[in-house]
Structures are given as C-alpha cells and as structure tokens.
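Sanity check. The docking grid for tetrahydrodeoxyuridine depends on where the pocket ends up, so I'm generating a full predicted complex first rather than guessing from homology. Inputs follow.
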Amino acid sequence: MKKYEIKVPVVACSWDELSEEQKKIVAIAKDQINNSYCPYSGFHVGAAAELKNGTIVRGANQENAAYPSGLCAERTALFAAGAQYPDQPVVRLAIACYTDGHFTAEPGSPCGSCRQVMIETEHRYKQPMEVLLYGEKETLVFRSAADLLPLIFVSENLNG
Ligand code: THU
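Predicted complex below; grid placement will be based on this.
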C-alpha cells in the first residue's frame, strides 16, 4: 500500500495584492450578482470569464422552479463563451457570491459540476485557466482549474 498526499498550489490575496487584470475581472464577477436569478435560494453568484482576445463574458446563476433545470454562474459564463467565441481560449475565470445583503466573507467555492466544466474548457483549448474565488476576507487564486479537481476525468479517460 502506498499513501499519497495531493497538494494544491493556491495563493490567498487581499484586494490590494491582486493585479489590475485580476481586479478587473473580479469586479465584473461582483457586479454580475445583480444579474443572478435566484428566487429560490437567495444566493447570488456572479461570474466572469476572460478570453484570450481580452473579451469578458459574463455569467450569473439562473434558477428554475424545477430546481435541476437551473444553472450555476460559472457554467452560464463558460457555455456562453463557448457558444459565442468557440475559437477563443478562456484564460481567467472569477466568481463572487452574495447573500443576506453582503458578499460572502469566505471565497466562493465552485460546485463539482462547474469544476468539471472548467477542466473540460482547459482541456479543449489546451491552456490553463486562472481561477479567482472572491471573498471579502481574501481572494483565492488558482493557476489552473485542474488544481480544483485532482484526478480529473477528461476525454482520454474514455479510451481506458
Ligand atoms: N451556485 C453557483 O452559481 N455556482 C456554484 O458553483 C455553486 C452554486 C448557485 C446555484 C444556485 O442557484 C445557488 O448557487 C445555490 O446553490
């Protein structure tokens, strides 16, 4: 038997420690909480995806009375990016969460399905996507979405 430890590199930044590019995309993700449609959870999530050509595609969670029909903010942004700019790699993704009248103190954390979609996007464009998880206390910066989901499942796994 062997024991492994899976370590994930992550940097926790105060607002002032973020670069100008990072501040810009996080600010857009924060603004996007206004476009969240979340009458059932009251949990607003804003997302912003930056493409290689500099375009920023916005996302926000969209809920539905048939709960599973709704979609998370991250996936609305990534699917919109793929639908409108299929030739553009996504180089950066930011999310921010807002509930009970304020942004969450802790960084927002993408659900498993969103992590899987983020990884497919990286794989598709063969390029890492920086992921910024905003919180009032600190923003976590991951150099790649793959770091958010160790032992990833990608297309090669389908071939055994
Ligand atoms: N949500 C997101 O938008 N992103 C995530 O990664 C986690 C959860 C949304 C889905 C739902 O509208 C609300 O947050 C509560 O789960």
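Relevant for the grid: Residues 38, 41, 43, 45, 61, 63, 70, 72-74, 110-111, 114 surround tetrahydrodeoxyuridine (CB under 6 Å).
Also worth noting: The chain has one domain: 11-159.
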